[in-house]
Amino acid sequence: MATTLTARYAANGNPIEVIELAEEALAAPANGEISVKLLFAPVNPSDINMLEGTYGVKLPLPAVAGNEGVGRVEVVGAGVSDYQVGDLVKTPSTRGTWRQAVTCPAADCIKLPPSLTPEQASMIYVNPPTAWCMLHDFVDLQPGEWVIQNAANSAVGRCVIQIAKALGWKTINLVRREELVEELKALGGDIVVVEAPDTFKQIKTWTNGKPPRLALNAVGGDSAGTLSKSLGDGGKLVTYGGMSKQPIKLATGPLIFKDLSYHGFWMTRWYANRSAQERDTMYQKLADLFANGELKIAVDKVCPLREIKQAVTAALQEKRGGKILLNLQ
Amino acid sequence: MATTLTARYAANGNPIEVIELAEEALAAPANGEISVKLLFAPVNPSDINMLEGTYGVKLPLPAVAGNEGVGRVEVVGAGVSDYQVGDLVKTPSTRGTWRQAVTCPAADCIKLPPSLTPEQASMIYVNPPTAWCMLHDFVDLQPGEWVIQNAANSAVGRCVIQIAKALGWKTINLVRREELVEELKALGGDIVVVEAPDTFKQIKTWTNGKPPRLALNAVGGDSAGTLSKSLGDGGKLVTYGGMSKQPIKLATGPLIFKDLSYHGFWMTRWYANRSAQERDTMYQKLADLFANGELKIAVDKVCPLREIKQAVTAALQEKRGGKILLNLQ
Fold first, then answer.
1. Does a structural domain hold residue A292?
2. Containing domain of residue B245, as a range?
3. Distance between CA atoms of A160 and A167, rounded to whole angstroms?
4. ipTM of the assembly?
5. Other CB atoms closer than 10 Å to residue B254's CB: what's the count?
6. Less Cβ around it within 10 Å: N or C end of chain A?
7. Each residue's pLDDT tens digit, B20-58
8. Which of these is catalytic: B9, B55, B125, B262?
9. Residue A261: which of B252, B253, B261 has the nearest Cβ?
10. Tens digits of residue pLDDT in B210-265
11. pTM score, whole prediction
């Protein structure tokens, strides 16, 4: 039987230490299965958390790493009518995507819009839809309405800036480093500032008295407090990460008298709860934004799968110029 | 012109000090107005907060105190067709209810179900509907489903126990004093325990593996943390008070992976946002619960309006056997 190279982990721990290369058997597709040759996969924060064992999902170990990634169908098994050789597909997270090839049930794959480049397609499953859904699912944003976010330089944060701009919403973006201000403004951020304890005091001026009803939080702690104080009546703070590892503190008054509410967003739950049609409609809209240049995901470095430890090391650096992408070809 | 005795405050501060008796002019009803002879009014925590100046609403000072209270229509002005002499009415909060009589627009009053006793009617505007709405507006509770609350001995907490029981839901009630356990069980509480740091660990056993999706919080701080940890997937924590004056701390993980969300409830907003018909339907259901004995509000003491400082002093005592009610007759 053929084998394929994978990057897997047999235990949780320091990501750089636990990730390792391993050959795995690659079967010919059985009934209902397809074989996919993988092309690219990003190293996402959630992949790092999976290696550490701190994510909301755990796989039986050893497991091949990688939650997202894209390939092209190479062999179509019997009984599969909706895939053709060459189709661009997202392979199942449960099998891991940091691998050269996989044979798996066609029903567990997602066919992606053919207009996407393989690099774009490899990153359409996690960050752009997280930004898209958070901008759509909590507040019925009106044209020209303001949204505020921290971690604005994160991959999701950058998608939020671009998608909001494309859809006619304005963004206030909090960052931690001065040198990011001009860069994120160039990306489309309306207001980009280094976060300070009194940032919230300027919200009224910036928004002409119409403070945001939607705040996106990937930091927690004091930064989430700044977002809370920036929200107007009925505002919602949506948390999708906790980089500071500090809890969010809610004062009682604003909860009751300003009707603020606090929610979490997890793309994995969205996929579990929504229909394939909703998902595919969103992907097409994201593909259109990619196609017309309104959405770009910066790539800092492309690493071959064989250099997986260097790739994970690079992904752990805070100051990157974009995603670390694995070249699986 | 006739005058009427009122309890008013000219400044915010220590409630016992700022509350004072004063005569106020009482006009005959003009077009569209009614004159109401007040009967009873409770001293609620929100009234105390208004005196302190810590509530979400402020009135121009001096102001007559009291948010709820009931009277009977004594004179019906010209152009008023929906009120008759003797009707039981809630008079407007903006005019204060700690007074012997008031003349005000009929449109600002609420006609209450005639089956209510004056004492019940005087307390139907704040506590029972707060419990009713929190049990209805956030989670679509199924028959036999569990709800958890802290401050279970508060007036709202006691309404929650009784209304939940009447409607077929089960309650886990956290209290701070052992001597309340049997009393609240007798009131209908299914589980009543003195709160401890590990209380949440027993939730699965108590609920047979179906943890609550609704938690009601009037304390904040660590107690709100206990409620959070008790909630099942998709659970909602609804805050209507913050007696500990400590913020609620939200860990990022449960927000994202357990889909917990945090909300505030304010009866004043509910009244502002909902129709008179919705309100009256709820009042009728509450009146039915009062009538058949399923809902009772304990009264610790009835004080005449002239003893307002003693009444406020009594309301500030933590260990009471029920509401302090002002007799306004």
1. no
2. 127-268
3. 10
4. 0.91
5. 17
6. N
7. 999 999 999 999 999 999 999 999 999 999 999 988 888
8. B55
9. B261
10. 999 999 999 999 999 999 999 999 999 999 999 999 999 999 999 999 999 999 99
11. 0.92
